[in-house]
Amino acid sequence: MKKYISKFHYLTQDLPHRTHIEQAEIACKAGANWIQYRCFSKAEEELIREIHQIASICDDWGATLILTDHYHLLDQVDAQGVHIEDMDADFSAIREIISDEKTLGASANTIEDIQRIYASGAVDYAGCGPFSVTKTKPNDYPLLGTEGYKEIADKMTELGIDLPLLAVGGINFEDTEAVLNTGIYGIAVSAAVNSSDSPGIMIREFYKKIY
Questions:
Q1: How far apart are CA 25 and CA 32, in angstroms?
Q2: What residues contact 193, with CB distance under 8 A and at least 6 apart?
Q3: Does 209 carry a binding-site annotation?
Q4: If 0-12 CB within 10 Å is exposed, 13-18 middle and 19+ buried, where does residue 138 land?
Q5: 2 is in an annotated binding site
Q6: For 200, which of 17, 23, 54, 69 is 20 to 30 Å away at the CA?
Q7: Is 128 exposed, middle or buried (0-12, 13-18, 19+ CB in 10 A)?
Q8: Is 88 one of the annotated binding-site residues?
Q9: Whole-model pTM?
Q10: In which residues is 4-amino-2-methyl-5-(diphosphooxymethyl)pyrimidine bound (predicted)?
């Protein structure tokens, strides 16, 4: 079942000066229609309480709420899906657990990752990165840059892989046009918005550039 996938994904993160709830509210008020709640610092009860509040905000503004990794909580909260960061995850098994109604996203770094994700038949979109150096999610994966995305996008076309692919990891506003010109579907950002002096304005600027 084909699902709607936004071309702009906004990810919350642990910040000392702004809660995940505040981040989601700012983003939704600015027009963001896809919020990914990315939190690994809280116990399950606290996670559930926070997700309930963010889900209510997203519902008020008509935004899609995706949880990072916490698919086991989907039967307890009102979220529309999950994004799995483990590239070796069993996506078919996760799909069985969450049902066809929910959106399932997966992380990738190479065309081989994307081929495996696509072959599972279970995933609705992939986030591919990192584009550049990122402190939001430290990792040792090779930086892709615009050339890396172009190679991947071209190979996906050649192989007939019809899967929305979003660039993620270290993307700044100034990179938007060059990244989208590689042929990928969209972008996902966190720090570019969250470290901005005016996160709401930054989200609106991203939307103007992408849409």
A1: 10
A2: 10, 27, 199, 202, 203, 206
A3: no
A4: exposed
A5: no
A6: 69
A7: buried
A8: yes
A9: 0.96
A10: 107, 137
- Residue 134 marked in a binding site: yes
Amino acid occupying residue 162: D
Q: Is 137 annotated as a binding residue?
A: yes
Residue 50: closest CA among 87, 24, 84: 24
Picking from 50, 106, 43, the residue whose alpha carbon sits closest to that of residue 78 is 50
Q: How many CB atoms lie within 10 A of CB 157?
A: 11
Residue 156 confidence (pLDDT) above 90: yes
| Domains of the chain: residue spans and CATH | 8-210 (3.20.20.70)
C-alpha neighbours within 13 Å on the C-beta side of residue 186: 19
Q: Write the pLDDT tens digit of every residue in 188-202.
A: 999 999 999 999 999
